[in-house]
């Protein structure tokens, strides 16, 4: 399965992202940041690449002043 | 030639079918065994080799064809089932989740950490034998849990998932259990005491 991995600047930002995405009823997973993506924060958010809500997610994050980087990764 | 079709059958069924068929054929007669999963091929091969039988294995698409010639009687008292080894991926450890967060400290951080923990479990090289949910841990096993997909994936991979019935009842969530089954302290203590290791995240 291919996923988009959203990486944030700090744990607090991940907590906030978790909160706003949950409030917006988005389906996502919190995962430890995959080792190959360096980040100051050990946690990331994962969304299925095929998910139609991907653009909505980006819009929600931007609206809440959450800066992020997106990576692609195939995971089990 | 007699053929045993054990496609779609999981251990120990292919072993039992093979042993039975060998009992039915005559000396020097050959038997063909069809199996479609590698674990069963290994187990059946080990079983036949221990009976000093020669095996030729061929692969046809997803199906393995094992050819064996009967060169002696298989003793009745040999237990074919004991050649059934669990999948190598399954470890002998139990994860006991006693609350809906990980570690002490900030509650919000704890809640997000437990999500990351559970979501990583399906990718761990060795899967737990059982995951147990107790007290507020049961909230992670409910239909609306943020980690329900990962838990279902684990269950499909053969991980047993137990939730404390008393706890589901206390929080009035019995109807909302989304994965695994309702359990009691007898079963839970049994799993914990039989485990090689117990993880308390």
Overall morphology of chain A:
globular
Domain count of chain B, please report it.
2
Radius of gyration of chain B, rounded? 22 Å
Low-confidence stretches of chain B: none
Percent of residues of chain B in beta strands?
15-25%
Q: What is the architecture of the largest domain in chain B at the second tier of CATH?
A: 3-Layer(aba) Sandwich
Number of helices of chain B: 6
Oligomeric composition of the shown chains = heterodimer
Order of strands across the widest beta sheet of chain B?
8-7-6-5-9
> What's the end-to-end separation of chain A, in Å?
6 Å
Low-confidence stretches of chain A: none
Structural class of chain A: alpha+beta
Top-tier CATH class of the largest domain in chain B: Alpha Beta
Largest sheet of chain B: 5 strands, parallel
> How much strand of chain A?
25-35%
Helix content of chain A: 25-40%
Number of strands of chain B: 9
- Terminal Cα separation of chain B, in Å? 56 Å
Largest sheet of chain A: 4 strands, antiparallel
What is the total tally of β strands of chain A? 4
Q: Estimate the mean pLDDT confidence of chain B.
A: 91
Which key terms come to mind for this protein?
heterodimer; A: 76 residues; alpha+beta; Alpha-Beta Plaits; four-stranded antiparallel beta sheet; 4 strands; B: 201 residues; alpha/beta; Translation Initiation Factor IF3; Hypothetical Protein Ychn, Chain: A; 2 domains; five-stranded parallel beta sheet; four-stranded mixed beta sheet; 6 helices; elongated
């Amino acid at each position: 399965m291919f996923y988009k991995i959203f990486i944030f600047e700090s744990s607090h930002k991940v907590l906030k992202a978790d909160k706003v995405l949950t409030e917006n009823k988005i389906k996502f997973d919190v995962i430890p940041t995959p080792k190959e993506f360096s980040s100051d924060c050990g946690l990331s958010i994962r969304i299925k690449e095929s998910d139609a809500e991907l653009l909505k997610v980006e819009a929600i994050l931007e609206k809440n002043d959450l800066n992020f980087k997106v990576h692609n990764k195939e995971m089990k | 030639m007699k053929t045993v079709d054990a496609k779609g059958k999981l251990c120990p069924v292919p072993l039992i079918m093979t042993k039975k068929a060998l009992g039915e054929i005559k000396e020097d007669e050959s038997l063909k065994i069809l199996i479609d999963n590698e674990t069963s091929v290994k187990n059946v091969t080990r079983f036949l080799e221990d009976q000093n039988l020669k095996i030729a294995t061929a692969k046809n698409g997803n199906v393995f064809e094992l050819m064996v010639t009967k060169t002696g009687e298989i003793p009745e008292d040999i237990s074919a089932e004991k050649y059934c080894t669990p999948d190598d991926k399954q470890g002998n450890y139990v994860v006991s989740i006693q609350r809906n967060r990980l570690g002490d400290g900030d509650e919000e951080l704890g809640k997000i950490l437990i999500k990351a923990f559970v979501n990583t479990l399906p990718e761990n090289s060795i899967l737990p034998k059982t995951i147990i949910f107790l007290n507020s841990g049961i909230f992670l096993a409910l239909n609306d849990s943020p980690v329900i997909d990962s838990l279902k994936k684990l269950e499909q991979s053969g991980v047993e998932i137990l939730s404390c019935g008393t706890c589901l009842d206390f929080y009035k969530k019995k109807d909302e259990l989304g994965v695994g089954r309702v359990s009691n302290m007898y079963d839970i203590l049994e799993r914990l005491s039989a485990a090689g290791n117990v993880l308390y995240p």
